[in-house]
Amino acid sequence: MDKLLDVKDLKVSFNTFSGEVQAVRGVSFDVNKGETLAIVGESGSGKSVTTKALMQLLPKPQGFIKDGQILLEGEDIVQKSEKEMQKLRGQDISMIFQDPMTSLNPTMKVGTQIMEPLIKHQKMSRAKAKERAIELLELVGIPDASTRITQYPHQFSGGMRQRVVIAIALACDPKLLIADEPTTALDVTIQAQILELMKDIQRKTESSIIFITHDLGVVANVADRVAVMYAGKIVEIGTADEIFYNPKHPYTWGLLGSMPTLDNDGYDLIAIPGSPPDMTDPPKGDAFAPRNEYALKIDEELEPPLFKVSDTHYAATWLLHEDAPKIEPPESVKRRMQGIANTGTAPGVAKDGEK
Amino acid sequence: MIWEESIWTIKLAYTLFSIIGEFFVNNELSVNFRKESTLYQEVLQMGRFILKRVVYMVITLFIIASITFFLMKILPGSPLSAENKLSEEQQEIVLEKYGLNDPVPIQYVNYLAGLVQGDLGLSFHFDSTPVTDILANRVGPSAILGAESLIVGVILGVLLGLIAAIFHNGVLDFTSTIIAVLGTSIPSFVFAGLLQYVFAVQLGWFPVALWKGGLEYHVLPVIALMIFPMAISARFTRTEMLEVLGSDYITTARAKGVTQAGIVFKHGLRNALIPLITVIGPMAVSLITGTLVIEQIFAIPGIGEQFVNSVMVNDYPTIMGTTLFYSVLFVVIILIIDLLYGIIDPRIRLSGGEK
């Protein structure tokens, strides 16, 4: 498959009063054409910052890309000027944000907001752009689109607004769509609709999607591949099946164990103890070691490299070293993995398996 | 009797307007137009809103008139206290002529009766000219000065605030903040004196005072008066703009590839100006009181100068007339501001004119 995006050893930092916060500490991943990559992790793991860096939308002047390459179709966009980035944003890469209640301009008509990138990037006339805006609203499932484009965001419900945000992101047929927790602020029924819509759109437009979330249920639904992030690093990356059925990293076990399922009677919902490390002074060894009940002595001294599990599956834990004791994931996580496999509570996974 | 009369007038006006309104609502010819035109709906709502507000305004003015009237009567001194040249008989004649011998309630009723007919009474000084004539002759310079300084001040202030927000924490930001702080803390009459000394006496660019029609007579008083609204609007624009620039929908706009200029002027400005409208009301009022002093300093024959003089000599009808004039101005300004809100902020437009 063709590589659309190739991120190599990306490092992002923030200058704050208490020193440099290393939000992303050397992240490498790639996204193929037409593929959905989910980036999973708890708050502060650096997943949002990674994608903000992809679009160079880091808050200025505190945030900056310290090192690394972001190759979009082979071209490094870290080196691009603000002017060149403006041409890229909305055209090649676009973004769907977390909170639809605040991500639309309250004093601008919805139609105008959708038409803006069309007029800017595709040099469309206003009339042409308006036509396209109506098409887009219909595509994202908003009825009566020709009236709706003359309305303001406050006349839309939360789910409808997120559809509008998606329509804006799709306006110029971007090659890469970044969805930063697009369903977090929505209620569960609307979440399902929005996810369905995004899958549907991907089938139609064949764009690549980077899907950021902390909700593994959502991941199972949409992702082809999954990257698990912790403390500014990718600790495990693999296909959705590999992550759900054969997780190798204790942090991934923790995430899976803390995921509620419908049939978990008798099994505790496991919380990962402790909290993420202070990123102004990241630990010398494995950042997850203090919270990891399977931590080895070496974890405190030396950071584990990414061990290869299969061609597509890598995990950064010393447990995979040939000298390490063989440790199986805890019982409850195994049950949960089986639960997903047997009952199909995560239908997306089953579907992906069929492909 | 008069009270009933005015209430009756209000009722009549309201009924008339309602009938006209009903006619538009129920007339078959207009049904189709009404169904199709949201503009029609908006105009109708706006009409109802204004009508309601006008009724409130009349009530407010009635209350102000009553309070001012009785307060004035409580004040020590009489219109004749400065005129010790008159004999007792002459004084008696004068008091009789102006109805000042009647019991206070009668005077009050008579005054209101005149007021309803648009008669503000005769001035005790200035050769017994009707107060309405005095106001009409003097409103020109005050209105021009006030309007000029408000417009120039707000525009300059918004620009200053914008520059400060865009170059946040830069040299320009500090400069504009210093100007704003000086502008709010130094009273306008100090500026007036300084301006007269530097630009009129020393440099001789502009006339020191007086009002003879030429534009050069406007410059110094307008500068003195506009400092305050400029400083206030600069401060507000800066704060609001910074907040707006940090908001989610600005990130959305940047993610669409909108240029910096587009971000500031198309997306930011309108949202940043909404709170500013709130302070323009009090600012306009402070300009009115500001003119009292500035008109004295620059010897401008405006209402302010007139007001001060009439208070000095207990010229009841003129005090009443001027107070009412200011009150009308004030309530009209507030109404205009409320309407402006609707124009700038679409969220208020619908709720503002509810039935």
From TrEMBL, chain A:
Pfam families: ABC_tran, oligo_HPY. It comes from the Bacteria. InterPro entries: AAA+_ATPase (IPR003593), ABC_Ni/Peptide_Import (IPR050388), ABC_transporter-like_ATP-bd (IPR003439), ABC_transporter-like_CS (IPR017871), Oligopep_ABC_C (IPR013563), P-loop_NTPase (IPR027417). Coiled coil: none annotated. One of its GO terms (cellular component) is plasma membrane. GO terms for molecular function: ATP binding; ATP hydrolysis activity. It is a peripheral membrane protein. Keywords: ATP-binding, Cell membrane, Membrane, Nucleotide-binding, Transport. It is found in: Cell membrane. Residues 5-256 form the ABC transporter domain. One of its GO terms (biological process) is peptide transport. Belongs to the ABC transporter superfamily. NCBIfam families: oligo_HPY (TIGR01727). This is Oligopeptide transport system ATP-binding protein. The lineage of its organism: Bacteria, Bacillati, Bacillota, Bacilli, Bacillales.
UniProtKB/TrEMBL annotation, chain B:
It is a multi-pass membrane protein. Keywords: Cell membrane, Membrane, Transmembrane, Transmembrane helix, Transport. It is found in: Cell membrane. Pfam families: BPD_transp_1, BPD_transp_1_N. The chain crosses the membrane at residues 54-75, 143-167, 179-199, 219-237, 273-299, 319-341. Residues 139-341 form the ABC transmembrane type-1 domain. The keyword Cell membrane applies. GO terms for cellular component: plasma membrane. InterPro entries: BPD_transp_1_N (IPR045621), MetI-like (IPR000515), MetI-like_sf (IPR035906). GO terms for biological process: transmembrane transport. The keyword Lipid biosynthesis does not apply. Belongs to the binding-protein-dependent transport system permease family. NCBIfam families: Opp3B. This is Oligopeptide transport system permease protein. It comes from Salinibacillus kushneri. The lineage of its organism: Bacteria, Bacillati, Bacillota, Bacilli, Bacillales.
